[in-house]
Amino acid sequence: MLKHRNILLFCISAIITLFALSFYFDVKWWSFLLVFAFWLAMTIFGSSNIKTGYFVKSYCDNPAEKELKIAISFDDGPHPMTEKVLDLLGQYNAKATFFCIGSQIEKHPDIFKRILDEGHVVGNHSYSHSNRFGFFSTQKVVDELKQTNAIIERLSSKKALYFRPPFGVTNPNIARAVAKTNHHVIGWNNRSLDTAIEDEAKILKRVKNRMAPGGIILLHDTSLKTVNVLEQLLLFLQSKKYQCVTIDALLNIPAYEN
Length: 258
Fold this sequence. Notes:
alpha/beta, TIM Barrel, 2 domains, globular, membrane, Polysaccharide deacetylase, Polysacc_deacetylase_ArnD, hydrolase activity, acting on carbon-nitrogen (but not peptide) bonds
């Protein structure tokens, strides 16, 4: 797996080598530009694709899982629509993991408590879910994680160890922050794109086509569209004999501090 530090060292070495060669050969200026462009492209790709683990180790599936087990995860709640999601999960005896925004927990504490009361797992999804989260300083990220963890702990007496970065964006500041807060970064390997695609059938098809034992599905418990997709998905999983488990059960990594 490519890592930020390795790519950075490679690019620095390439620049130094090109500079040294320029004393003996006609090294074109664009050679240096190509190295920089490669570094920039890898940085952008690594930042936006949590599955690469480019900046920080992220858990996106369990490839060793041979049984028909899968984890459904929901981002951006709790939300009034979460109630319908919970109704469906209960109807199909499925467990899920909810990555909750701190400010949303404050708005809907009763729904948050219902998530836990019904045997699901919760994780930290920042306090603000700001569009600028990827530009936050290390300390600002730490503050957001601690603020949301404090809300979770106040309402549940549980200290959450899971963190899913907003938009799945990672960078060196986020990596340093989770090292300080001791969170496990949880990603996914089956992204529904339910916030971008309007056609429910297309969302369902996309998820089904990427289905495999040990996978983690990303949905959002914030729209009726996703609720409708979830019902069809749970029917499909039931027909294929899949068991929907929480992420801690799938990865064998504790969701809360003992």
